[in-house]
Amino acid sequence: MSALILALIAGAVVGLALGSLGGGGSVLAVPALIYLLGFTPAAATTASLIIVTATSLTALYAHARTGNVRWKAGALFAAAGLLPAAAAGAAASRLPQPVLTAAFAAIAVLAAVKMLRPSRTATGPAAGEARPARAAGTGAGLGALTGLLGVGGGFLTVPALVTVLAFEMQAAAGTSLLVISANSLASLATRGATTADVSWAVIAPFTGAAMLGAWDGKRLAAKVTGTLLQRTFAVVLLTVAAFMLVDALT
User: Fold this and answer.
1) What family, per the record (predicted)?
2) Phi, psi at residue 199, to the nearest 5°?
């Protein structure tokens, strides 16, 4: 199968994940870039940020049209992660590739566990109100994760918004895309010199398919239960994580 077809298929899956779940695209994009398209881990994390930034902005627009984005709380959460994302992005190129691969696999396992746990639905007048200290601490940690591993962090942002800020699931998914977009842009800015090393002949169709998939994912989320989507995605994540851990240890 040609690289172009693989890029289009992988891009569509990434877009579906981001559009329907408000995260998870990057934990699929990085393994796809490494194992299907032959990128090195360092190049894959940079390419993933390009893909995730463009796709998240597209999905953010789709969710904003239906009122699923809490702009004030999301901006606070995202702002706390900007500097950590930039700093970690600058440090990522200095780490050995097996370390990056193993760390990414561990994060994928954590994401799967988060998605397999039942979501807590927000209730009461406090739902969606920002708790500045907790939001800032969580946002900073996710920002560092974005910069280091080239992930948007949405697969952890959604559970964090539900548990820390008491968002309902749909608002958490939409607001997560605002956080992902901000963190990815901050991290990508520190990798400007390395973007010339990625293959644009692969990244362009991958990104285009992901952006189209994001719109389909938004429509899918309205038709399929969130629990089914999360469980299916969790199984995929565990499979990817197992493969990457074996590769890192051999």
Assistant:
1) Belongs to the 4-toluene sulfonate uptake permease (TSUP) (TC 2.A.102) family.
2) -85, 105
